[in-house]
Amino acid sequence: MADGERNIRISVPEALEAGVYANGAGVWHTAHEFTLDFLTLLNSDAGEPEVVPARVVSRVKIPPSVVFDLLRAINTNMTLYEQRYGAIRRVDDLPPDDHSTPEARR
């Protein structure tokens, strides 16, 4: 291990082990923190196709100093994912009969 590096032992509380499903995200910031809102997009019964209702299923606030580490970790994992499973397709690129939930793709 190089100087300044350290190992982190991660422990996930039992109540959080299952995680939550999110098919959208929003990011905003202040001078002191970045906020990541993970969303579940809801079906819109209203006649406004340009407005998609969404519910925040998790909100995470991180200091600016962690943003680069998070981006690096996501980039590394996206690269490994695509090497193993192929290119990630955006939901907008899927055929119209495909849906954005894993249950709908089974």
Kindly describe this structure.
The chain has one helix and three strands; from the N terminus they run E-E-E-H. By secondary structure, it is α+β, with helices and mostly antiparallel strands. A three-stranded antiparallel beta sheet has the order 1-2-3. The protein has one domain (19-105). It has one helix at residues 64-85, and strands at residues 24-29, 34-41, 54-62.
Quick take:
The protein contains 1 helix and 3 strands.
Topology as a string of helices (H) and strands (E): EEEH
Tell me the distance between the termini: 43 Å
Task: Report the principal-axis shape.
Answer: extended
Spans of at least 5 consecutive residues with low confidence: none
> Whole-number average pLDDT?
86
